[in-house]
């Protein structure tokens, strides 16, 4: 009973930590170019380039350093990595609100990515402690924290920035990360057996020892594509909303609501879909979620009014609730606990790459074609992902055939 209470307490505290961390990464997105504009006298091309660098550098550095932190997590524990990430983000994000030049901002955004790692280590803690029969629901519940925080962050950040100024958003986010540090320190309890340095397997050997190495690589690719699909509309959502509203009305407010709609639905649906994956298998939920997401993005290319777009964005929340928790559950069930830190950190690296690739593809496609082309491109990515998962998850879908 005590063990059950401990993993449930960890889940609750780490959910809140994931939520605030996801929000911290995304709160400044709506106004980052406007904030950069106040830091110097830039031409339009310069402002566009600097905004892209400031946005992308966080995720690029995050993708590079995550495996290093993952190795330390397997050697020294995942809780200490959560504390390191929360404290690092507390200082770097707060400092962003004090900068006077663009160079300082870009350096701090890079450091923010370097100190990342809270979410993947929180996933590892819950994955290691939750009973196997509840792993799907536990990972589904935990995943909603990051997803909802990331989706609601721009809405809240825009409100704070509009009311108190751009810099205030950094201070609020820094304060939230300080709260994450304290609650994680006091309320998260980890039972961890460190791996000795001479027993730490190289990455190549880890994959050789996995029963289904192709499956885990397929999960990495899936994480990248899901994140790219979610982020592909980031550069164009407010512009597309303005087009649907014929450039009249509260475009900024409606854009914020449309961007945040999937998060609200994900919050409600993810635990239930996680519980479903415990009963029928996460691989089946993942395939169904990818199919559903594809069918949702295709009609987005043909919407004629804001209500149609809003309804389809609600359905995106359902697919998000199925996809990322299923990925986490599959990795939990088919990876040894001794390498959770590294496997989850590799997965975070792929997610960070998706955060860079998605907006870049969205910007390129919308520039070459139009805003509607972004949704068609996203549907195409999901079809590719569906083919990858059908191939890599074959041993789970047809276990008898695999054994013969």
Automatic annotation (TrEMBL):
Q: Where is the Major facilitator superfamily (MFS) profile domain?
A: 10-397
Which keywords, in A-to-Z order, does the entry hold? Cell membrane, Membrane, Transmembrane, Transmembrane helix, Transport
Q: Where in the cell is it found?
A: Cell membrane
Tell me the domain of life: Bacteria
Note the topology in the membrane.
Answer: Multi-pass membrane protein
Question: Per its UniProt record, what PROSITE patterns does this chain match?
Answer: MFS
Ranges annotated as spanning the membrane:
12-36, 48-69, 81-100, 142-164, 170-189, 249-273, 285-304, 310-331, 343-365, 371-389
Q: Does the keyword tRNA-binding apply?
A: no
Q: Which InterPro entries match?
A: MFS, MFS_dom, MFS_trans_sf, Tet-R_TetA/multi-R_MdtG-like
Q: What is this protein called?
A: MFS transporter
